[in-house]
Prior knowledge:
78% of the residues lie in helices and 0% in strands. It is mainly alpha-helical and 297 residues long. It has 2 domains: 3-118, Up-down Bundle (Four Helix Bundle (Hemerythrin (Met), subunit A)); 124-259, Helix Hairpins.
Amino acid sequence: xxxxxxxxxxxxxxxxxxxxxxxxxxxxxxxxxxxxxxxxxxxxxxxxxxxxxxxxxxxxxxxxxxxxxxxxxxxxxxxxxxxxxxxxxxxxxxxxxxxxxxxxxxxxxxxxxxxxxxxxxxxxxxxxxxxxxxxxxxxxxxxxxxxxxxxxxxxxxxxxxxxxxxxxxxxxxxxxxxxxxxxxxxxxxxxxxxxxxxxxxxxxxxxxxxxxxxxxxxxxxxxxxxxxxxxxxxxxxxxxxxxxxxxxxxxxxxxxxxxxxxxxxxxxxxxxxxxxxxxxxxxxxxxxxxxxxxxxx
Length: 297
C-alpha cells in the first residue's frame, strides 16, 4: 500500500478523529491547570512535557493530512478548517522570549477551539453564524436606531429626575443596555414612575448632581415596557430567525456537498466496475484460446 493511501486511511478512520478530540480536551485541561499557581509550582515541568507531547501529536496530525493529500499536498490548505488548525499549531513554534510566556499560554488556550474543526456539528454551527453576519449587520443597525431614539427620548423625559441613568445620551444608552438585558430593569422604571424622591433605587451616590424629582407613572411605564417589548422580544426573535435561516442554508450546503461527493464516487465506482467486467471477459477469452491451442497440439 502506498504511503498517501495509508495516511488517508488513518485520517479518515473514526478512531483517529476520536483520538484527536481526546487530545484537544486534554490540552484544554492542561491550560486550565496552568492557571493554578499551586499546580504549576508542584507539577510545572510535567505540565510542560505534556504540552510538548500534545503539540507533537498535533504536528503529526497535520503531517498525516498533508501526506494523505499527496501528490498535491497543497490541497490540504484548500479547506479553511485545515488552515485554522495549521495556524494554531504554527503559532506555538514562534520564537517568543520569556516575556511572552502569557501570550504563549493564551495561544495554547486556542487549541481548545480545534474542537470546532474536528466535530462536524460544530463546523455547521460556526458556518451558519458566519453566514448570518451580513443579515445580522442590518439587525444591529436597526437595534442601534431603536436604542438611539429611546436614549434621546429618555434623556429629555427623565434626565432631570434621574441624572444617574439618564443624565446624558451615552449614560442613557448604557442604561438602556442594562434594561434590554433585563438585569434589574424595574428599579430604573420605578425611579421614573414614582420619582427619585419617593423611590430610592439608586445603586450609586448622587452627590454633586442636580436632581429635580418628578413622578411620571404612565409615561414611565409605557416607555420601559415598550422598550423591553421592542428591544428584547422583537429583536431577539429577529436574531433567532436570522440564525435559523443561516442554519438551514448551511445544512443545505452540506447536503449538496455530500450528494456531489456520493455522485462523484458513484461515477468512479461504475467506471471501475466496467473495467473489472472487461478484464474478466478478456481473461475468459484468453482461457478459451489456451484451451483451443491445447486441443490443436
